[in-house]
Amino acid sequence: xxxxxxxxxxxxxxxxxxxxxxxxxxxxxxxxxxxxxxxxxxxxxxxxxxxxxxxxxxxxxxxxxxxxxxxxxxxxxxxxxxxxxxxxxxxxxxxxxxxxxxxxxxxxxxxxxxxxxxxxxxxxxxxxxxxxxxxxxxxxxxxxxxxxxxxxxxxxxxxxxxxxxxxxxxxxxxxxxxxxxxxxxxxxxxxxxxxxxxxxxxxxxxxxxxxxxxxxxxxxxxxxxxxxxxxxxxxxxxxxxxxxxxxxxxxxxxxxxxxxxxxxxxxxxxxxxxxxxxxxxxxxxxxxxxxxxxxxxxxxxxxxxxxxxxxxxxxxxxxxxxxxxxxxxxxxxxxxxxxxxxxxxxxxxxxxxxxxxxxxxxxxxxxxxxxxxxxxxxxxxxxxxxxxxxxxxxxxxxxxxxxxxxxxxxxxxxxxxxxxxxxxxxxxxxxxxxxxxxxxxxxxxxxxxxxxxxxxxxxxxxxxxxxxxxxxxxxxxxxxxxxxxxxxxxxxxxxxxxxxxxxxxxxxxxxxxxxxxxxxxxxxxxxxxxxxxxxxxxxxxxxxxxxxxxxxxxxxxxxxxxxxxxxxxxxxxxxxxxxxxxxxxxxxxxxxxxxxxxxxxxxxxxxxxxxxx
Length: 613
Ligand code: FRU
Fold this sequence. Notes:
By secondary structure, the chain is mainly beta. The protein has 3 domains: 10-114, Immunoglobulin-like (Sandwich), CATH 2.60.40; 136-455, Glycosyl hydrolase domain, family 43 (Tachylectin-2, Chain A), CATH 2.115.10.20; 463-612, Jelly Rolls (Sandwich). It is built from 2 helices and 43 strands. The structure holds beta-D-fructofuranose (FRU). The site of beta-D-fructofuranose has 12 residues, from β10, β14, β18 and β22.
């Protein structure tokens, strides 16, 4: 005891103290820092070094531990700032302990209290019409649900940096799937762990008994992840998703052995009168059921011998899809979405799916066929390199807004990045965007079904001025030198192509700096639709970025190609979404020229429409 007191006295003497803008900064000889202040302003602004060391930052209010965050506090240089919101603790004494930070760290000179947090929300690669977090890191879309006229989009969020960490659920809402309003973070890490991916539902029949007023309860299912393991937990909201309470008896589902046990997607299965949960467990999907959303029973698993297995299975989804317009009488199938990382066809992350039937207990797969060993054939939902963690909205309404519920319209969204380089893409205050919301449909090709993936109709409301060019016959090359006046890099191209005799139907999008993306349909032998981004602009931030992506395509007389371009991404679609291909690009300036080219014969661009978005 005596020894302890003496060593405490010594370390107090060795502590140096600095006062800056009412913040007392105490550092000791072990390189540990403590900040102390009375909260008088809304934020503490923390300087961050993008590739700096991850430091555990512990927050105490009046000596009570409140939470810990992992932040790359700037030691050598400041790349950007993140705000720690103190509004809950105004007028209180706050202490922040930061082991591993000594007094020479540059952040200690620049740390400050402020009522404002400003950043450049229009930075170069910030998309104009794709969803991005206000600042900080984003990965998977989570908990999408429609309720009371609002589409909710939650997402894996780090509010304290632009690299993956401190997983929380960010939150935004929209009434039209196009314009999004940011809401406060819905779920933050707690003593059970970080908040990983999951889903939301409307508890129509109050099965969980959380409802208190007239609003239906929204239930959120998510994975609590910590060093000891992963388990599933529940939170609920009785105020249209504005505030959330974590269920007191969390976790609701644990596993004794699996290390990867996550991403619950829950839906109501009418014929069984039960909730169903699909979960990614290593390389299979486990299915559980529950009458009340709290107690869960294991039903079955699916996956061994089916599809791609060169990575971990993540973010599953299971739903029934009808043939488009319900035209075909027997046109209804169950679709199981399984995201996989790594092991995608273009390297890294991708979305595969399975078509079959579900009886409330077991998923019976009809396509792709099983293989004897793992690593077999797979069906891919998108053939680009930047389409991951796609899951769908619960309770979607019809486009005109009348009625909502399962099975009316299946809308989904994906994270537009790839784990191979997501942490390194050259954006500044934020990292990652979502794809545009897409509609999934079942299409029959010969004897087989596929799932199509196409932008929601609502995106067309963004179209501003239009430029239309008709009947261009391309024998060798044909160039259009300007797509739009003052092109800001957010536009759409729709082209109707009629093939006369070409073996290669190609076009390149250029900027004046000679950067380009090459897209072509190749018809001899292996028929494919290809996008090459090797010369697209900035590519040197990762060895995995400069790639060529390719989708199988049929030889046809006519093709309709649609491209949604938004500063740093290109989403390509063929037909009604039979092919989709999503890729990031980082051009130094927008591509504003198109050069068509043909090989082995000619083709006609019957119509090219250019829309500013
Ligand atoms: C997929 C994923 C999920 C997990 C989350 C963590 O990208 O790895 O499986 O829940 O990200 O952020």
